[in-house]
Amino acid sequence: MLYCKPYTDLSEIRMLFPSESLDANGIYGAYTALEGDLPLGKSLVRVEGNSCRILRVETQSSDALLCELLVRASLHFAANRGAFSARCALPAYQDTLLTLGFSERDGDFLGEIPTLLQGSCARCHPQNG
């Protein structure tokens, strides 16, 4: 079974992302995607007021669903801490980000979290009324 393990403790997050420069006063969340005990990927997000920046998504394969799982977990973390908009600069995951509903502007991918979390079917087939 595939699942995401969350991390909010800064010392644990630093161990997951040792090359990242993390501000001690920042609000960070990280996730590892696991199948059983096998790590398949990880993500890092920072909440900045009413917005968030997805800083990293790393996967063991180019599996679009795994990337989507990590991005959605990061968006949920940020939304639960008051973020409304999301930004990331991860061109390697462009197809997944565009499928989720991000728009691309000058190499940055932008979106409003409630819309991004609706899923692609909600954008293709809006509800009337």
Tell me what the structure shows.
The protein is globular and about 35 Å long. It has 129 residues and is an alpha+beta fold. The protein has a seven-stranded mixed beta sheet with strand order 1-2-3-4-5-7-6. The chain has helices at residues 10-16, 64-79, 94-100, 113-116, 120-124; strands at residues 2-7, 27-35, 38-48, 51-59, 85-88, 103-105, 108-112. A hairpin with a 2-residue loop joins strand 6 (103-105) and strand 7 (108-112). The chain has one domain (2-124): Gcn5-related N-acetyltransferase (GNAT) (Aminopeptidase, 3-Layer(aba) Sandwich), CATH 3.40.630.30. Helix 2 packs across helix 3 (94-100). It is 30% helix and 36% strand. 26% of the residues are buried. The protein contains five helices and seven strands. The model has no long low-confidence stretch (mean pLDDT 90).
